[in-house]
Write a structure and sequence with these properties.
This protein folds into three domains: 2-80 and 227-310 and 458-525, 3-Layer(bba) Sandwich (FAD/NAD(P)-binding domain), CATH 3.50.50.60; 104-216, no CATH class; 311-451. The protein contains 17 helices and 18 strands. It has helices spanning 13-24, 68-72, 105-113, 117-142, 149-156, 160-168, 173-180, 184-191, 195-198, 210-216, 229-241, 285-294, 300-307, 351-362, 410-426, 445-451, 505-518, and strands at 2-9, 29-32, 44-45, 54-55, 82-83, 87-92, 98-102, 223-224, 245-247, 252-258, 261-267, 272-281, 315-323, 343-346, 372-375, 390-398, 437-443, 489-491. The longest helix is centred in the N-terminal third of the chain and has 26 residues, at 117-142. It is globular, with a radius of gyration of 23 Å. It comes from Candidatus Desulfacyla euxinica.
Amino acid sequence: MSDYDAIIIGGGHNGLILGNYLVRAGLKTLILERRSEVGGGLSTEEITIPGFLHNLHSYFHDTINVMPAFIDLDLEKLNARYYQPPVQAGIALADGGAVTIHSSLDKTCESIARLSPHDAKAYRQMNENYRDFMEAVVIPALYSPPQPPTGQLAFLESSPEGLDFLRMGRLSPFDVLDEYFENPHIKALILHQLPIPRGIAHDYHGLGTVIPLVVSQVEHSQICLGGSHVLAHALWRSFYGHGGTALGFREVSKILIDKGEAKGVEVSGGERFKANRLVASAVDLKQTILDLVGKENLEQDFVRKVQNFKLDEFSIFSVHLALKEAPVHTAAEFDPDIDNAFKLNIGLETPLDYHLLWSEIREGKLPQHLGMFCSVPTLFDPGQAPEGRHTALIWQPVPYNLRDGGPERWDHIKDAYMDLCIEKWRSYAPNLTDDKILMKHALSPLDIERKLSNMQGGGVFMGRMILGQTEYFRPLPELAEFRTPIKNLYLSGACCHPGGGIIGAAGLIAAEIIAEDHGLDKWWEL
């Protein structure tokens, strides 16, 4: 049996980040990955035509500018370079209108004012009122162990911004938008920043605070140059360069437990690895606790709570296109910047559209009320396609388990549904004709689950982002500090605070807690 100080289950970005912090703290660290490569959702592949790079599961990286690991690990020196598109987001309207959100607050307000001077003023006021608060309070909280509710209340009650933040935390995003804004298209564009990459729906009660977070623009939507996999490669090179070991094709089948303490792992085929100090799991909660630990090693009340942990309410149906030319939208006659929007809203033009789409999702219907998240990566990183060519992506929120036929039905309908999504985009960008599409490829929620087994039910956020599963309640109060009932077994994945997306927080927080428990030198604080 091979001996290591620390064994990490899962080589996604959180597992890699944790591994980097531990190996630099002096632990002999092993990462075990089921697939042939590390990175998890940081996947970039030539799934259409050689030379056309497609970011399959992760693309909008909104927190790189505030991610401690990016600086601590010197990832930019390892070729993880980012570009922040000046036009951060936009909504194209069927009537030919458009609204765009820019890195520049002035330009954003100018665009909003064309539809609503009132909303332009409200947007600026919310941005200016909350930007400093978000930078000083909310962003650091994303990268710190979650505090019990009483501790949060005492701190937030001490300032007017904090009190208003607490009040918004008792409302839904839709409620907050209704209070501050009047134009339905402005509301729809702000709502568009919630499901991807944050996993939050418009009516999740108690999550209204995400609205000032979005409007404050302290998180910058950015693209990883060369494809999202470049970030995974940088994390791997950093880990390997400091003495870490990562093994692929090693699917962990069991966490070895002796007298209530994690002692190592066993992989499919029977090979065992000994952990002298700790085991950490970066995979999903239910797989870790129910399958790898086993119900027999836990109290039944705790097992029941884990079983009741809610998975994502929606999944993503994605379409990847190799194009002769970039889409040109009819709305560009009104606002030319719409053609260069990084995150493009197609079809979710009013809050009612969100209600209609999510009603279909919640009923398990194949959505016919399409509302899509679109982008053309090559507008911002031309090297992701041959010269003069482009790639494009469509992400459409859908249910994993279809009422008519279950998840297996996706295998039979995904090509037809792909064409439906393309046709929807074509109604806004008429040049997106069949002769301009060199090749197309669809990935269904079932495809996601098959490829990335920790994304059960095609859920890319590894647990629903509802009030009862955020902050100190994510995934459960008993697990909020990343420790488990099994001694020296830790969680370190997106099922923990602060949740999914390429945030890189769970890996860092797990490292902080492990360092405290095992007396490690916190080199990153020096």
